[in-house]
Amino acid sequence: MKIIITKPYLKAFSILFGNLSAGWFGLAFITPGFVDITLPGVLFALTKDIIFGSLCLLATVKIEEVIENEF
């Protein structure tokens, strides 16, 4: 079974990961306004949000590079 990934699918994944990245960074930006950031669990959650946001942003960039080079 051969899986064919075409440009529209890659573009959709790129947009999806871009939106996920914005969501993670938005969550990291808004969270300190609602909770006490001196608690260790909250700092871990903020760090996790920033890491996931960065990974989603990196995925977006890599997919866009594939689209630009392959198509």
Describe the structure.
- By secondary structure, the protein is mainly α.
- It has one domain.
- The protein contains two helices and no strands.
- It has helices at 7-30, 40-70.
- Helix 1 (7-30) runs antiparallel to helix 2 (40-70).
- The longest helix is centred in the C-terminal third of the chain and has 31 residues, at 40-70.
- The radius of gyration is 16 Å and the shape is elongated.
- The model has no long low-confidence stretch (mean pLDDT 93).
The number of helical runs is: 2
The total number of structural domains is 1
- How far apart the termini lie comes to 23 Å
Residue share in helix: over 70%
Order of helices and strands: HH
Q: Based on helices, strands and strand pairing, what is the structural class?
A: mainly alpha
Pick out its properties.
2 helices; 71 residues; elongated; 77% helix; single chain; mainly alpha; 0% strand
Short description, anyone?
By secondary structure, the chain is an all-alpha fold.
What topology does this entry show?
Elements lengths: L6 H24 L9 H31 L1
Helix pairs in contact: 1-2
